[in-house]
Design a protein that fits this description.
The protein is mainly α and 235 residues long. It has helices spanning 2-5, 24-55, 60-76, 78-81, 87-102, 104-139, 148-168, 171-199, 205-230. It starts with a helix and ends in a 5-residue tail after the last helix.
């Protein structure tokens, strides 16, 4: 994921107690609005995904697979487009819409398990957890930049294990993946905000927004899966 690999060249160049080359104004006027708008676009993607599922269920699965492939392509090519003004906004919001659409199966499953309250609770816990971890990552004097490689591998392992579980439907593995996802994306949130603070510059504002968005969605997916598994209602 380029939002941490393309920062490797900066590691060690700034003390952890300083704010990096990115100004606080850029963070508050560009990064945070883009992140917030990305969440709104993701919600629109959820709506669109459910609409397709209801009106054209026969094509829902092919479209879901295509959306997942497109998401991965956008993430792994983000280093090439995140600094290109104009294009970066289009591709970021496209990624957000795709992320929302690919949440539909998990949301539908969680709705069957515990209804809307489970989804609302998971979203609330995600927002509070993400906010607290982000604040810690942005204010601590510790430097977590050296965690990037380990976390990147952990996310890849989580993704591969998730694909494996699609075919085996193991409830035990599902629980392990949910707990692991909460831990990994919590750590990634702290890491991401710490790196944004210490090493990003103003030109990296879209990379910062993308990283925050990915972590929020990943944390939400893991918490929602965990809450769904803990629900008393059977599948």
């Amino acid at each position: 994921m380029s939002f941490e690999m393309d920062r490797a060249r900066h590691i060690g160049t700034l003390p952890a107690s300083s704010w990096g080359a990115m100004s606080k104004q850029t963070f508050t006027t560009k990064v945070m609005p883009a992140f917030g708008m990305g969440l709104l676009v993701a919600a629109a993607g959820v709506y669109g995904g459910f609409t397709v599922l209801k009106t054209a269920p026969a094509i829902a699965m092919p479209l879901l697979i295509a959306a997942v492939v497109a998401e991965l392509a956008l993430v792994f090519t983000s280093g090439m487009w995140q600094r290109k003004e104009g294009l970066n906004r289009v591709l970021f919001f496209l990624y957000a819409a795709l992320s929302g659409a690919t949440l539909v199966p998990l949301l539908a499953w969680a709705g069957l398990r515990g209804g809307l309250p489970v989804i609302a609770q998971a979203l609330t816990v995600t927002a509070v957890t993400f906010g607290g971890l982000s604040l810690y990552g942005a204010t601590t004097k510790r430097d977590f930049a050296n965690m990037g490689g380990f976390l990147f591998i952990a996310v890849l392992a989580l993704f591969v294990a998730g694909l494996f579980n699609i075919f085996f439907h193991s409830s035990v593995l599902s629980l392990i993946l949910a707990l692991g996802g909460v831990g990994i994306f919590s750590a990634f949130t702290v890491y991401q905000m710490n790196v944004i603070r210490n090493y990003y510059d103003d030109a990296d504002w879209m990379g910062a927004a993308l990283g925050m968005f990915i972590n929020f969605i990943g944390l939400f997916q893991s918490i929602l899966q965990l809450f769904g598994l803990m629900s008393g209602r059977d599948d």
